[in-house]
TrEMBL record:
This is Ubiquitin-activating enzyme E1-like. It comes from Zygosaccharomyces rouxii. It comes from the Eukaryota. Residues 624-633 have a biased composition (Acidic residues). SUPFAM superfamilies: Activating enzymes of the ubiquitin-like proteins (SSF69572). One of its GO terms (molecular function) is metal ion binding. The keyword Nucleotide-binding applies.
Amino acid sequence: MGREASITRIVGPENYAKLQHFKCLIVGAGGIGSELLKDCILMGFGEIHIVDLDTIDLSNLNRQFLFRQKDIKQPKSTTAVRAVQHFSNSKLVPYQGNVMDTKQFALHWFDQFDIFLNGLDNLAARRYVNKISQFLKKPLIESGTSGFDGYIQPILPGTTECFDCTKKETPKTFPVCTIRSTPSQPIHCIVWAKNFLFNQLFTSDQSSATGGSDDNDWGTNDKEEIARIKQETNELHDLQQVVHRQDKAHIADILKKLFIKDIEKLLKLDNLWKSRSKPVPLTENLIDGAKDDHNATDLNAVWNLEEQINQFINATGKLMDRIAQEDYNIEFDKDDQDTLVFVATAANIRSHIFGIPVKTVFDIKQIAGNIIPAIATTNAIVAGLSTLTALRLLNFLPYAKTNSGLDVNMAFTARASNLSKDRYLSNPKLAPPNCNCAVCSKVARGVVKVTKQGLEKLTLSQLIDLLKKKYDYPSETSLIDTSDQRLLVDFDFEDLLDRTLSQARLHDGSVILFSDEEGNEREMYKKPLEIYLQVVEESAAELEIGLPSLEIPLFKPPKEEEEDEEKEPSKEKSPENEKDKNGIVILDEDEGKDENDNTAVKRSRSPDQTLQDTKKAKVSKNFDDDDDIVELD
């Protein structure tokens, strides 16, 4: 009752009653997500759903306070809910899955929530939730931390700038997070080799690496699972003993354990590989044929797999020779070539197994000295700011009512904001949407509801006719499936017009882009329309397809600068130098195009790129790689 009384005093009795009927979605159950879950429960949210794809790793335990040693390898979302259940008055619903999986998490599933709270460390997933927020006009609070730095960004679709309104720089520092099971970048393998493997084999404190031995600590009643964990513990102990005995004849056993047996065990965890490429373990023949290579090797060269294995054996042998002399405790030092080569080769062999590009030893030397661990206190501060801001965004604070949304504040720690060094937090006001943002400004969005029968019967031609009539588009248009950038229909590509939506591989959750390719006499074009296909039951729909009521505005694209053949050569501009005020390179539409080659217009386009008529100027713009991992926890 004490907790409820405190919240009631803050928000008022009427708002507290409303709060108990609100649903919120927390995306991510890691460092920030654990704190968000706790805070939302303490504030009295009526229903809290939490999504996370990952399982708990040993490296999570120092900051993700809901997890214990016995929880290792358990799903984060379900374990987090189980940990807080005893003090929760909220309805808690966990999910283990990829939030971008449209089969598990369709648009109508997101529509049940009043607000989204992000606690993600993945740029692609953050952009996806941002786009869902824009589709559904639901508020989103974005957050992230890196070491002692952190920030929150409230997002009100149509009112404030969205996550993609500002360019996201690739971070230069990386926290140690979720690297043990599903690495996707070289840095993940480097962190695994340096912070986990090296410490496990060559430092004196092995207690945290071996795991518990009490049967009550396994976190499962499955006898086979307990037997497997015990076996892994014994194998880990054997590896340590091989190193301490300085038994170089068994270095091959270390290789086989790390890069064959452990990978084979990972492959048995089916949930990990539903949306990821499976790793490919090494072969025993490859390891058995390796040798201790004492030859000097160029540290600036990318070694092949055989060289990596040979140098791993060499470096491990040298460290074995040293370990007794150094009291069984060797610290990693990027300037110590033995430790550096061990970490580099272990990381590169793991990269090879997971299909990740390998790095030179010199590159790894630079990266290994630049790893930042996540700080539990920063996560707690940022999560607290997120949940308090959620109250204001939902107008639950009588003394801080928001009228437009633009009077709500962001929050940055001092170093992250670059605004003030005199105080820990800076809180600038939110900005309106960036007019050049491809996510919230350059396209219109809507949800088209179609029945299963409509999916099988309606053709692309019929869909296009309906869209033209409903939204007053001209005769020449294009249609693109944004999931794989497939051109479905264009003014001179009509091969697929008679295919049904299902034959065109469109389904529940597909996002398609409908664009004006003609314009009007004033050279104005209809804004591109991004459509989310939602498949509904026949009983829930009056028609086979339902189009939303939308006002699609006109816009004027940048003018094409026609080349004047009469110009003096000295005044001509090359395409590389010819840019409009937005820095967009304007290219001649006929440059490099064969008039008889129709494939030139069968292009792939994304809503995240400037959308232009194929009869107008072709536009080229550089974008950051969407697959970069944002190293915020």
